[in-house]
TrEMBL record:
PANTHER family: 6-PHOSPHOGLUCONOLACTONASE (PTHR30344:SF1), 6-PHOSPHOGLUCONOLACTONASE-RELATED (PTHR30344). It comes from Pectinatus haikarae. This is 6-phosphogluconolactonase (Cycloisomerase 2 family). Gene3D superfamilies: YVTN repeat-like/Quinoprotein amine dehydrogenase. Transmembrane segments: none annotated. Belongs to the cycloisomerase 2 family. Pfam families: Lactonase (PF10282).
Length: 322
């Protein structure tokens, strides 16, 4: 089956916004990316049905753009100082996290228009890196505050809880399991994997804390993905340019592999819908790679295909070719 991929990029003299490519989930093959939409600040991109969402900068303002392919319409709302580093769509709402502004923005899609629902401020340079959604709760990892703030959308997005970490940990990205009782989270600064379990009192108890990379000197872990069968965790680490694989037994992760990312600076990656491939964008080496996964062992076994994309940051897929 074929999928259309979208890649957000940092601005440079060779990258100009959002790029698209075709990925074959049967063979692992990639087409050469082409420019989909020219923009500044197009780092992050997300897909929702026929809608394509991405971050944008224009005239010293930043925010989001929405393209509806079904109605052939475009909407944008630029209310932030710096470009967000995360964007997601859920239940007709759009969520962004802004590392430098230290804010999370919640937007609503109203027909062909965007409107702001809420602005959650954590302070300048708080390092907000993601918005994790769990029913009516928003979990926001704040890298520079060493915490995950928890907000309740059912109570006007009030701060309802917090997961704290040791100074210098730098929580960055996390994933929930399908039973919604386990949270796996990666830290950027301490390069660790954390496993939390939901308790009867609705608090999250730390069950396991594991180092990701012991030998490196310039590591900075970034993205985390959970396999569909929830047997394996995958993590990218920049600086040392590695992908790490953890197996999960009785909910406890254990590292089973570390391999080269096939380039320099693996900012983001994803697992293909079939679970047979890992697609990684290496920002500084300007390449996109398809890597085969042995689904029984979870191990990354080979590089299948590679193509050029400059300054790749975020990546997403939707079903169907271009």
């Amino acid at each position: 089956m074929k999928f259309t991929g979208y890649i957000g990029t940092y601005d440079s003299f060779e990258s100009f916004g959002i790029y698209q490519f075709v990925f074959d989930d049967n063979t692992g093959r990639l087409s050469e990316p082409s420019l989909f939409y020219k923009t500044k600040g197009g780092k992050c991109v997300a897909i929702a049905d026929d809608k394509i969402l991405f971050t944008k900068e224009s005239s010293a303002k930043s925010g989001i753009t929405l393209i509806d392919n079904k109605t052939n319409s475009l909407s944008e709302l630029l209310t932030e100082k710096a470009s967000p580093c995360f964007i997601a769509f859920h239940d007709n709402n759009i969520y962004t996290a802004n590392y430098h502004d230290g804010v999370v923005m919640i937007y609503k899609v109203n027909g062909n228009n965007l409107q702001i629902i809420k602005r959650l401020s954590m302070g300048n340079e708080a390092g907000c890196h993601q918005v994790l959604l769990l029913h009516n709760l928003l979990f926001v990892p704040c890298l520079n505050l060493d915490c995950v703030n928890i907000y309740d959308a059912a109570n006007d997005f009030s701060l309802t809880g917090k997961i704290t970490f040791s100074a210098g940990t730098g929580p960055r990205h996390g994933v929930f399991t399908s039973d919604e009782k386990r949270l796996y989270l990666v830290s950027e600064l301490s390069n660790e994997l954390f496993y939390f379990k939901l308790q009867p009192d609705k608090s999250w108890q730390l069950m396991k804390q594991l180092p990701i990379w012991l030998k490196g000197t310039a590591n900075a872990s970034a993205a985390i993905r959970l396999s569909q069968d929830e047997r394996f965790i995958y993590i990218s680490t920049r600086g040392d340019n590695i992908l790490s694989v953890f197996s999960i037994s009785d909910n406890i992760p254990e590292q089973i592999q570390q391999v080269s990312c096939g380039g320099d600076h693996p900012r983001d990656f994803l697992l293909s819908p079939s679970g047979s491939y890992l697609l990684v964008v290496n920002r500084l080496s300007n390449n996109l790679l398809s890597m085969h996964i042995d689904k029984s062992s979870g191990l990354i076994t080979a590089i299948i295909d590679s193509t050029t994309v400059h300054e790749g940051v975020g990546i997403t897929l939707k079903q169907g070719g271009i």
